Amino acid sequence: MTCAAVRSLLAERSLGTLEAEAATGLDRHLARCAACRKEGGELDAAAGSLAYVLAPAAPPSGLEDRVVTTVQRVAAGRVPAHRRGRMSMAVATAVAAMVAVAGLGFGAVMAGRAARFRDQAVTSSVRNRDSMDIFRWVLRSMEFSDPSNSVEMGTLAPVGGGPASGSALTLLAPRSPDMAIVTLAALRVDLSRLPLEVSLVGPGRKVVVGSISRLDSGGAASVSTSLNEDLSMFEEVVVRDAKGIVLLRGDLRARSLQSASPAP
Amino acid sequence: MPDGPLLPKEEQQLVEGLLAGDDTAIRILYARFGRPVFTLGMRLLGTREAAEELTQDVFLAAWRKAGSFDPARGRLSTWLMTIAHNLAVDRLRRETGVTRPTLVLVDQVPEQESTDEERAFIEHDAAIRALASLSGSERRLIARAYFRGLTAREISEQDHIPLGTVKTRLRTALIKIRKANEGKEL
Prior knowledge:
The structure holds two protein chains of two kinds.
Chain A: H1 3-15, H2 26-32, H3 34-48, H4 63-75, H5 84-116, H6 120-141, E1 150-158, E2 165-172, E3 178-185, E4 196-202, E5 205-212, E6 221-227, E7 236-240, E8 246-251, E9 255-258
Antiparallel strand pairs in A: 1-2, 1-8, 1-9, 2-3, 3-6, 4-5, 4-7, 7-8
Chain B: H1 8-20, H2 23-45, H3 48-64, H4 76-94, H5 118-132, H6 136-147, H7 152-159, H8 163-180
Helix pairs in contact in B: 1-2, 2-3, 2-4, 3-4, 5-8, 6-8, 7-8
């Protein structure tokens, strides 16, 4: 993406109205281009001041106390400072485990099950359920005890039908970068349609989780990333082929977990 | 802490206090940003209930993402009001079909008499400068994009003007606002 192309999008980005389609590559460019980042920051500041042009409305007197109480309630279970390093190691371990499970064994497991199940719908359902089990196992296997963290999970379904499936997890963590993990299974695409782009999409926003340039023999792959961005704003996971055609999509808010009480 | 603009170090301290659930830090943040956040909710969403809900959601979201705030990358006011705006527009887009209130801007109402705080003067002056820097059509354009959540493409289609023209006008308007308040951050 060129600087000129990026700058033509910066105002919309600052105003919060950038269409998800147009956001491809924008954040990556900003991460490495100081000049565009500077302009983006200036436009952000201008947009941020717009709330003040509205005629002020007085909040009710009790709202301050309610805000304080609400924040203090969620902050009360924070992790002691000396455990924060272990927490980030645990997250890293979880991601490694997730990628290993999905990349090495998941596709083969799914392919084997597919042979035993003739009913495609049942097979997809089993795949998704198994993916969720793997996510839960990852969450339990790590030291995931910070109540301020939360997890959103969802399953991906093929847009054009077929046996492909997928699962997505976002870890929302106030003390460390948010994290997204997406696994795919039983996806058959021609090589010409690779690489696939996996992204999270929210109102006027999009972030790329990763790019998939090969699938294993079971049509499985996984991508993960950590981002200094609030992933709670993103509601949907979308997988596109190299031509931009949507192959799978899923709702991230279908399942939500607080880390302190992982699902049974 | 002073009533005027905060130093980056003070902003960082406030956010760390928010993360820790510190009563004083939350109240300072609320004193600075509670009113503009609530105002955004009232003017965009139209009811006091929705505005109160938005205000609580914004402070919760700020607490949850406190770790991502970096004073070297932008001001606390920009960060927090961006969270507020995203949440408000998110709700606007989810609740299609709901009648929204007519926007009332700061220069359309009499100046408030109870502006005995330095910060209130700063906010009011900055808002007046921002509005004065825009032409009537730019004001309407910014209002539709920022306060109604319309994309440039939607505006282009509604007004039958090229998409590139809408993008250029939005950028021009934001640059004007930026220049109007250069060096006068909230």
